[in-house]
Specification:
Rossmann fold; about 10% strand; elongated; four-stranded antiparallel beta sheet; 2 domains; Arc Repressor Mutant, subunit A; alpha/beta
């Protein structure tokens, strides 16, 4: 039995490391180019807000990580706010988690020790307001003493000051360099955090900050024109196959050769090999059977419906007569023409496999089909 040991917790801020070990990005050249152009404007001192939208699993986070990998940002220049469905009703939860990670707050240490860490951290923040340690201390439930001259604001004023303080901390670039604020899953943000994000979006025009938001819907900033939106659509079939090849190659290692769509010449060569092997089979005398191409197509489709893919040679395994082999090959060619199947080969000399596919609307009609002569 294989055993595993838990070494540490994966923090939200560590998500920025994911792009370094991810599979190649496929089919998103235009989108990554748009993000890189936004980053160039940020480096010139013009803050940018960009929202990536799309359905679940379409690659919003992967696109963000690709940008981080390409621009080569240091970890201390990246702020990640990760929303989750479990914390939609917990005010400022993503921000609290991020501040705890950035400051080094530890649950297994005394509150006084963590409060000291907070004060040391804030002492390094440029233009830090004297009230900031108290406000952030209250937010993180840490015992930070109030200055003797401090007055107690009412609840509404306390909320406003805390919000402005958080905005300043999140939007302060490390060492004055350009920075990135990545807000993951905006659609799950609690209202208080969403308000902070919207304040950042409207106030970074002159700051070297890229605010990058991922969301299932265009909900950020109440439709603010300050936010550039990049919708992600589903990948084309060719990109999906390319992505699948990359994933399989990553698992299989360096010896893997991707499947390539087979041309007619390769099919003819494979069929000649099938005929040669059929000659070596023991002869079995059976009454001759007249097998039509249409009937053979139905038989082959039924077989392909039982499995994800079928080897080319397996299509001929139940046929002994030369005429049946020819009919089977003709049936396969017709199935390709009708876009009922796709045929791929692993590498230049690997085995050929046949995959059943959903017939597209623009597929040709069978020969003799009245539908094929209309319109």
């Amino acid at each position: 039995m294989e055993a595993f040991q838990v070494l540490s917790e994966l923090l939200e801020g560590d998500l920025a490391q994911g792009g370094r070990n991810a599979l190649p990005l496929v089919g998103r050249d235009a989108e990554i180019e748009e993000l890189l152009q936004a980053w160039e404007r940020v480096k010139a001192g013009r803050g940018q807000s960009v929202q990536i939208t799309g359905e679940p699993g379409i690659g919003k986070s992967r696109l963000a990580l690709e940008l981080i990998d390409k621009i080569g940002l240091r970890d201390d220049s990246i702020v990640v706010l990760q929303a989750s469905a479990q914390h939609q009703n917990a005010p400022l939860h993503p921000i609290i988690r991020r501040l705890e990670q950035r400051i080094g707050i530890r649950a297994d240490e005394a509150a006084e020790v963590n409060a000291s860490r907070l004060c040391e951290f804030l002492a390094r923040v440029p233009e830090c307001d004297p009230e900031t340690p108290v406000l952030i201390g209250q937010l993180l439930a840490l015992p930070v003493p109030q200055p003797a001259t401090a007055t107690l604001p009412d609840a509404q004023e306390l909320r406003r000051k805390t919000r402005e303080c958080v905005v300043q901390l999140l939007a302060s670039p490390a060492n004055g360099d350009a920075g990135l604020i990545l807000v993951e899953d905006f659609h799950w943000l609690d209202p208080s955090t969403a308000e902070v994000v919207e304040r950042i979006a409207t106030g970074i025009g002159d700051a070297p900050i890229l605010l990058l938001i991922t969301s299932r819907a265009s909900a950020a900033a109440n439709g603010s024109a300050n936010i550039r939106r990049i919708p992600l659509h589903r990948l084309a079939d060719a990109d999906c196959r390319n992505l699948a090849d990359c994933a399989v190659a990553d698992i299989a290692g360096d010896d893997y050769e991707p499947e390539l769509e087979v041309d007619l010449f390769s099919l003819m060569s494979a069929f000649q090999a099938v005929v040669q092997r059929a000659r070596l089979r023991p002869k079995v005398l059976l009454p001759p059977e007249q097998l039509s191409v249409d009937t053979r197509i139905e038989q082959l489709l039924a077989r392909l419906s039982e499995t994800e893919a079928c080897g080319f040679d397996d299509l001929f395994a139940d046929i002994a007569e030369r005429s049946g082999l020819i009919v089977t090959f003709l049936a396969l060619l017709e199935m390709i023409r009708l876009k009922l199947v796709r045929v791929f080969q692993s590498g230049s000399f690997g085995p050929i496999r046949v995959y059943k596919r959903s017939r597209p609307a623009d597929a040709p009609h069978p020969i003799g089909d009245p539908e094929g002569h209309r319109g």
